[in-house]
Amino acid sequence: MPADATTIELVEVGPRDGLQNESVVFSTAAKVEFIERVIAAGTRRVEVTSFVNPKRVPQMADAEDVLRLLPRHEGVYYVGLVLNAKGFERAAAAGCNEIGMAVVASDTFNRRNQGVSTEESIAAWLDIARSAKAAGIRPQVTVSAAFGCPFEGEIAADRVLEVVRRVAEAEPHEVALADTIGVGVPTQVTDLVGRVRDALPGIQVRCHFHNTRNTGLANAYAAVQAGATVLDASVGGIGGCPFAPAATGNIPTEDLLYMLARMGVRTGVDLEATIATGRWLQDHLGRPVPGMLVKAGGFPGVSASREA
């Protein structure tokens, strides 16, 4: 493990990427409680909602209401996902202090997901990033389908790097690599994270993995080893992309916390509180969640220190 990999920052994506793929539509109050629970456990960055067409993603139709009801905490970032200028305007007006945008490495997937080409999304991102900085909002960007596409298949690393370099022209807070459909494997992660770090000195790398084919935690480990400093996760392992066939399951936050804690990596997030939220979540969903720690519990002496 790299000498500086003693702390990993977590971004909790359950309230957005988790709930957007669920057939059960949470009430606004339940979403706010979900977010408050993960903040109480120590999380300082939460992807709270997306500002997209509610006809396409009805689970996120109450985006403004969620932001209106959320109390503000010092040092906590409420992340809103946006895909275009209109979405950014909504996120800024609602009070997001961080926005994330997704640009898909696959042009076919970008057109299916966002209705425009990858090149058009890059141009929109560069404008949005400038507007966000002018408004005092922190911008970050995710390169989606970086490890494979459901429509185009394998995505060449050179293509991912081309998109990464283009989006980095906006000097974002970070650039994320997303395995949107859960096809990546650790060797691929090691190679791509290393190449992106070399290409973007001074910009931190975040990774977003789905556990669709049961490689998510192994990929998270590989990302840490390769020098990624931020990881996304979803309580209970819920979620997925509604526009990608069978793209189910983010890596479970509590399972990731357990692995990192046993590795001696600090996150600042409490494991037992996160397991409790996973159990609360499955009660609200009316079904078991994919995460293992919700079922098995922790291990004596492993609590995932709150010290970041």
Notes on the protein architecture:
The protein is α/β, with parallel strands linked by helices and 308 residues long. The chain has a single domain (9-296), classed as TIM Barrel (Alpha-Beta Barrel), CATH 3.20.20.70. Helices cover 41% and strands 15% of the residues. An eight-stranded parallel beta sheet has the order 1-8-7-6-5-4-3-2. Helix 7 runs parallel beside helix 8. The model has no long low-confidence stretch (mean pLDDT 94).
Short précis:
The protein is an alpha/beta fold and 308 residues long.
- Mean model confidence by pLDDT: 94
CATH structural architecture: Alpha-Beta Barrel
| N-end to C-end Cα span | 18 Å
Helix content: 40-55%
Q: What's the CATH topology label?
A: TIM Barrel
Number of helices: 12
How many structural units, i.e. domains?
Answer: 1
The secondary-structure element order is EHHEHEHEHHEHEHEHEHHH
Structural class: alpha/beta
Q: CATH H-level name... which superfamily?
A: Aldolase class I
Strand content: 15-25%
